[in-house]
From TrEMBL:
This is Glutamine amidotransferase type-2 domain-containing protein. Keywords: ATP-binding, Glutamine amidotransferase, Nucleotide-binding. The keyword DNA-binding does not apply. It comes from Zasmidium cellare. It holds the Pfam family Asn_synthase. Belongs to the asparagine synthetase family.
Length: 689
């Protein structure tokens, strides 16, 4: 787990900066993310100063100086910096040791060995969470690659004729970058759905993708992995007269339920086993939910049956950390987590989050996540990482789950019941039973669907995404009252931007070949999951206190198996009660490892409280940040609209107002700490107002 930076002077006849200047810039860039790597710092710069790589290191595997980066091959013409963990590296090391001379025991050095053997397809063989940069000096090729889910962030920009790449956008400030708000991206929610960010000209390397720069010229992107779901229908093998659509047949799942349950169980256990390996102590984040509880239970099982060690601690007593929001007992899962830990014989450590603790972390959450969200859950995650670090622990297993294996969110229920699941037809005896269940379930689910989700049903969006509701739900999260002058920089509705951000080859699959539940999951995993959830309560927050979070559910071996499971076994609908049992296949897979209480619980999203008093610490912090001067400095909102938000949020407990004013406060923090210019019409896209 580390922080990366890179700079490339573009052009045929560049005027490269002196090497000493590039060294200073790289050091300045790394200084802004030194919290990500307190154990070592290194850089490499080409002799002509055209290319530079830098890294700050958090030592997890091979704590010696041999594991420091950048890495270099024996010919000294391929150089690499890597952030993250690569699992199962011991097997690859044994296979490749005869053709590559390893200089360390670091898992990350594996990247150079795989590149030597497989060339540009090396990423196919990586297992884990990672972001990395390779420079092949002989071929003049730079490669920046991100893991399949977007667990690790990786951004790029072209600034003054130079390609900049970094783990966090704040690192670009070390190269003299002057940030401006991308108002179109903010208005259209491009920063949550496509390659854009909130800053003009700054882009993301997309999950499962690589950025290439050849011969210091054009930038290109290639996808090396994507979510692929099975067809629900296929063309009949013996065509009779008529159109293709008249000759489709259902693709029926041939595996038994027991086989699929065991398949998920085996792969999840393996994913946990791999992520318990480290040269430092390992602990766990534990809530009252099924995901983290199952990881705790599996870890306990591996300790007892296989003698697995928790990293280098030598202890067989797992420490479990739980965030407890004292202000809101409704969503508090601490008591359930405590009971789980007690039953498993684990040490339970609660992190008490009162209002003062939340308020004191608001600024750091905004600055380090580099985004806004109208929720305080990231403040709890930041406090958890702080406590983990204080106990000398560097690695934390978390239950972060994209729900590719179980589909647990309630707003997915309409997609599950929108049409029958032809891969598992035995669930309903007659079409009448299915229609009755559909009617009942849709009546219940209507209250879960945002108005914006309903509105897309009459547009071309319905045809692009096969009428999927999820686009509307995704784009309705923390909507902000932007100033009216920004309307002219909004060319498309947010739902359209979301739909058009998806790869073109999936539209036909969504419309004709994927079950609606799989379509919904694809949209979630390509948009809000990597761009909001993984940023706000993931790596960027954990690393503030030098904690590496590992996510067993985000193991592509597990994902690829789970995607083949029939939707009706992920969210199972009981034809007798017409009720959906969400996360069904996962519940059955982890049943031997969890308590009956956890097994029976419904999915509850990790959300913080939204109601606070008008004289408390959070109110005072919001009032300190959200002033007329600060709002006008942003340039994105009218003070007359924002002025009353705090009173509505804290005095009248309007939840929408609370989320709005909290998000505005976070944008103000980012604007101040990054030194972002005030947004004005004449500044946008080089156009006059």
């Amino acid at each position: 787990m580390c922080g990366l930076t890179a700079v490339v002077q573009l052009g045929d006849h560049p005027e490269s900066k002196p090497k000493t200047d590039v060294e200073r810039e790289i050091d300045n860039s790394l200084e802004r993310v030194k919290h990500r790597g307190p154990d070592a710092q290194g850089r490499w710069i080409s002799d002509d100063g055209r290319v530079g790589l830098g890294q700050v290191r958090l030592s997890i595997i091979d704590l010696s100086s041999q594991g420091d980066q950048p890495f270099h091959n024996t010919e000294d013409d391929v150089h690499a910096v890597v952030n993250g963990e690569l699992y199962d590296h011991e097997r690859y090391r044994a296979e490749l040791s005869e053709e590559y001379s390893f200089q360390s025991n670091s898992d990350c050095e594996l990247v150079l060995a795989l590149y030597k053997r497989y060339g540009l397809s090396f990423a196919d063989h990586l297992r884990g969470e990672f972001a990395l940069i390779i420079y092949d000096a002989k071929r003049k090729v730079l490669i920046a690659t991100r893991d399949r889910y977007g667990i690790k962030p990786l951004y790029w920009a072209i600034w003054q004729g130079r390609l900049l790449i970094a783990t966090e956008m704040k690192s670009f400030l070390g190269y003299g970058w002057q940030p401006e708000w991308d108002v179109s991206s903010l208005r259209e929610r491009g920063w949550t759905n496509d390659m854009r960010t909130m800053f003009k000209g700054v882009r993301k390397v997309q999950p499962g993708s690589s950025l290439f720069c050849r011969d210091f010229g054009d930038i290109e992107h290639k996808v090396y992995w994507d979510h692929v779901y099975p067809d629900k229908v296929t063309c009949a093998s013996h065509m009779s007269s008529g159109s293709v659509s008249d000759n489709l047949q259902n693709v029926v799942q041939e595996r038994s339920e027991e086989e699929m349950i065991q398949g998920v169980r085996d792969r999840l256990v393996e994913a946990v086993r791999l992520r318990l390996r480290a040269d430092v102590p390992v602990a766990m984040c534990l809530s009252g939910g099924l995901d983290s509880s199952s990881l705790a239970g599996i870890t306990n099982h591996l300790i007892k049956t296989e003698g697995v060690q928790l990293g280098s601690s030598g202890s067989q007593t797992l420490k479990c950390f739980t965030v407890q929001f004292e202000h809101d007992r409704t969503n508090d899962e601490a008591e359930i987590a405590q009971r789980t830990a007690k039953r498993l014989g684990m040490e339970w450590i609660p992190i008490h989050m009162d209002e003062t603790a939340i308020a004191s972390r608001l600024e750091d959450v905004a600055y380090h996540s580099e985004m806004y969200l109208g929720d305080v859950n990231a403040m709890g995650r930041l406090a958890l990482a702080e406590e983990v670090h204080s106990q000398g622990i560097k690695v934390l297993l978390t239950g972060t789950n994209p729900h590719v294996s179980d589909d647990g969110y309630a707003w997915l229920e309409p997609e599950r019941i929108k049409e029958p699941d032809p891969s598992w037809p035995a669930l309903f005896d007659t079409d009448k039973e299915f229609q009755n269940a559909k009617k009942t379930q849709f009546a219940k689910a209507e209250s879960l669907i945002a108005d914006s989700a309903r509105q897309i049903s009459s547009s071309f969006m319905a045809r692009m995404l096969a009428g999927d509701y999820v686009a509307g739900v995704m784009t309705s999260i923390t909507e902000l009252p932007f100033a009216t002058w920004t309307d002219k920089y909004t060319s498309s509705p947010a739902t359209t931007v979301l739909a058009e951000s998806l790869p073109s080859h999936v539209y036909h699959k969504m419309q004709h070949h994927w079950h609606p539940l799989n379509t919904a999951m694809y949209i979630w995993n390509k948009t809000n999951f990597p761009n909001i959830l993984l940023r706000y309560i993931g790596d960027s927050i954990d690393m503030v206190h030098h904690v590496e979070s590992r996510t067993p559910f985000l193991d592509h071996h597990l994902t690829e198996y789970s995607m083949t499971i029939p939707p009706s076994l992920k969210m199972r609908l009981d034809p007798e009660t017409n009720k959906i049992r969400e996360k069904w296949i996962l519940r059955e897979a982890v049943k031997p490892f969890v308590t009956e209480e956890v097994y029976q619980r419904r999915k509850a999203p990790y959300l913080g409280p939204v109601e606070f008093s008008a004289d408390g610490p959070l109110y005072k912090e919001i009032k300190r940040l959200v002033t007329r001067e600060a709002v006008e400095k942003l340039g994105l909102f009218d003070w007359g609209v924002i002025d009353s938000m705090a009173e509505k949020a804290f005095g009248q407990h309007e939840h929408g107002a609370f989320r709005t004013v909290l998000a505005v406060a976070q944008l103000i923090v980012i604007g101040k700490r990054f030194g972002v210019r005030t947004a004005q019409p004449h500044m946008l896209n080089g156009q006059a107002s």
